[in-house]
Amino acid sequence: MGHIILENVKKRFGEVTVIPPLDLEINDGEFVVFVGPSGCGKSTLLRLIAGLEDVTGGRIIIDGKDATSVPPARRGLAMVFQSYALYPHMSVRKNIAFPLRMARLERAEIDRRVKAAAEVLNLTDYLDRRPGQLSGGQRQRVAIGRAIVREPAAFLFDEPLSNLDAALRVGMRLEISELHKRLETTMIYVTHDQVEAMTMADKIVVLRAGNIEQVGSPLELYRNPRNLFVAGFIGSPK
Ligand code: ADP
Ligand code: MG
Prior knowledge:
Structural class: alpha/beta
Number of strands: 10
Radius of gyration: 18 Å
Bound molecules: adenosine-5'-diphosphate, magnesium ion
Order of helices and strands: EEEHEEEHHHEHEHEEHH
Helix content: 25-40%
Shape: globular
């Protein structure tokens, strides 16, 4: 579970091609980071995988099945939004349970999953609070909890830490890496932050104007950048 193949995937907005035909394979359990400058198509690519945008061409295969025209809710993936997407008037428990209530799961099953997610995320003592009564890091964990309870084949993160302060960002980065180790679930993580890419990824996908410039482990990219763009972006030895 969590094996994703992009085959000849293209995206145009009107006349503008944002993603030229592109191939990519993401393996089960991998932590993959899409990195590249602002406007290069990272979010678009993630949204195509999530099904929040339709492809202009090509196919998306998830766990062996053609998911290209499958609606987002049925792809078995969970997008993690920034913590400000929480419902301020609902308790932590209700925020985390929300996607399961929408999916009409049984109450006992909802309670079981919320409890398990809260334990993993150290939120057990905060379930009855509202988001406004939590720290920034705790709020981000609630946003992740809302994804975990869906038991997805893969987690999709779009710059989840970009509105946290620097110190908190480092802590959350470690927490997400730790979570990946524990869950062993595929994670696709979008960032324009080279340090996040280098420290979190099993595999980095470097994007430039919708093109994949290079794919490789942090060490491979660091040692053998294919071109100056990759070298400059990843950070060459100083
Ligand atoms: P990134 O996440 O790397 O900053 P995006 O994927 O958000 O980049 O955007 C890539 C390009 O696609 C940008 O030029 C952006 O303006 C354009 N774009 C994104 N979404 C839309 C849309 N819904 N309609 C038209 N253009 C879009
Ligand atoms: Mg973006």
